[in-house]
Amino acid sequence: MDGTAPTAQLAAAQGTSGVLFSLVGVVIVAVLLAAFVWGRRVKAREPGPPGPEEQPRLPEGGPVGDIVESREPDDLAPTDHRRTPHELKGNGTRPRSDGK
């Protein structure tokens, strides 16, 4: 033996890596094209937008108005335990008692 360590080829030849990258690129492009075609087919199966005759109509009495009123908090009596949702009522407000 001449004292030198055996060497191994650690990198692929120039032509091999170029071919490999080209094949990977072609596969990625093919997958993207297939996804695009699949998406177009799915979109084509969906129903179109509603026509003018399918749009919502106003009620016969005209538009429904908003109720304008003053509200005040609906206070809770203090307790020693935590309240659960079924113990609460309403939305926490009530009409004002003075009628304003």
UniProtKB/TrEMBL annotation:
Positions of region (Disordered): 41-100
Source species, domain of life: Bacteria
The UniProt record lists the keyword Transmembrane helix: yes
Keywords: Membrane, Transmembrane, Transmembrane helix
Listed Basic and acidic residues bias regions: 68-100
TM regions (residue ranges): 20-39
Pfam families (UniProt xref): DUF6479 (PF20087)
InterPro entries (UniProt xref): DUF6479
Protein's name according to its UniProt entry: DUF6479 family protein
Species this protein is from: Streptomyces caniferus
